[in-house]
Amino acid sequence: xxxxxxxxxxxxxxxxxxxxxxxxxxxxxxxxxxxxxxxxxxxxxxxxxxxxxxxxxxxxxxxxxxxxxxxxxxxxxxxxxxxxxxxxxxxxxxxxxxxxxxxxxxxxxxxxxxxxxxxxxxxxxxxxxxxxxxxxxxxxxxxxxxxxxxxxxxxxxxxxxxxxxxxxxxxxxxxxxxxxxxxxxxxxxxxxxxxxxxxxxxxxxxxxxxxxxxxxxxxxxxxxxxxxxxxxxxxxxxxxxxxxxxxxxx
Length: 250
Fold this sequence. Notes:
Rossmann fold, single chain, about 55% helix, alpha/beta
């Protein structure tokens, strides 16, 4: 990552305070509904279907894999309204011939992401990974040190395979107290700095806490909310693509 990372990390401290207030507006009942929905066993990615689709796909300049939980999978909206599909259409419209694969699994924690990372790499062969995970760790009150260790391992594995990583930062609901939410929020910029990866300070920037952009649980975005997320993610993807096209390692 370029030298602007330090300023991004510093700015995240201010962003954290402002966005924490946004999240305070989310009601406990929404938290309970999401936790109930995410506590179920995550649906398995259909490996055969993905492999068949990959084999039938036309030649691309590269592959982008959106790896995450329900916020990536697009729980509650049609597949073509989830942010990876919106990202793919915008890339194509702007002349970037990159395949985008939605590898989101609803209910997944960072431990689940780590358990399937080898399959993601071997079966999907990503050039770029947008890594959005950890929200379910927080909702379940999992020790933040485990989340940090998992993110650390995930980034290290992608780095070893020369895969460009875009790490999506996340903030947590206030139900578990200020100490937990602060510890949670600080993990992402710390991992981004350690591994020198591109970092989105808050994946739900402009969406969290807004009734008109969230479903009835007030936590999962609507189609309009995913459109905002796609716009947030897009410039980071363009930076990663430019890096790939230069053929220079980060």
